[in-house]
Amino acid sequence: MAILLGVDTGGTYTDAVLIRDETEVMASAKALTTRHDLAIGVGNAVSAVLTQSGVAPQDIAMASLSTTLATNALVEGQGGRVALIYVGFRARDLEAHGLSEALRGDPCLLLTGGHDHAGAEVAALDETALTAFLETHKKDVSGFAVAGQFATRNPAHELRVAELVAQITGRPVSASHRLSAKLDGPKRALTALLNARLIGMIDRLIGRAEAQLRALGIDAPMMVVRGDGALMSSAQARQRPIETILSGPAASLVGARWLTGA
């Protein structure tokens, strides 16, 4: 018998449900969403559903979390201050896909480098300029985003930038080729920028939620619902929080389909 725990943090309520063998709803419960610390509402909802069901915490095989945090953060313009490293592009490319607007005044470096459509290097990566930029901003941003010209054909420059970011700043870095396979550089840059901005808040939510579950005696692995309704590990969600956009609505659709048998 497998008992699964599902938790959804909404704008007003946080819901928890226990399902047995993916066929039977054992119990469900609600708690008020605690906007200042969503994990408190998660803990309250899970505690209530355990009490209602009588299920022992150690019997839960897996927990999953869906949340509107990433969606709301992007709509409301929240998130950490980050820096964009734009490799092989020109200043006018910042205007594509609203990239300049999305930066909201955050630091940006137009860096010499990049590749062509066949993956051949167009220009050597300017590591001197990159190092100076990182030294300047390593204490005033929460993370970095990097997007290189045709990085999906050859990610060498993005990987080198990520390596130097880690060495010099210790901050998290979002590389565009790891988030999108599209050739469209400005769109990949926007994706990487938004991902970098979300990393801090999603990392805090997951860490605090996992701590709440452990405090209740639940040692099961925690998964996070992606925007397409599939599950990803909490470790993956921490690195690619952009994939949790629309997590809450996606979970609702998956739940509705399960309940109706559609």
TrEMBL record:
Pfam families: Hydant_A_N, Hydantoinase_A. Residues 188-257 form the Hydantoinase A/oxoprolinase domain. Residues 5-167 form the Hydantoinase/oxoprolinase N-terminal domain. GO terms for cellular component: cytosol. One of its GO terms (biological process) is glutathione metabolic process. One of its GO terms (molecular function) is 5-oxoprolinase (ATP-hydrolyzing) activity. This is Hydantoinase/oxoprolinase N-terminal domain-containing protein. It comes from marine sediment metagenome. The lineage of its organism: unclassified sequences, metagenomes, ecological metagenomes.
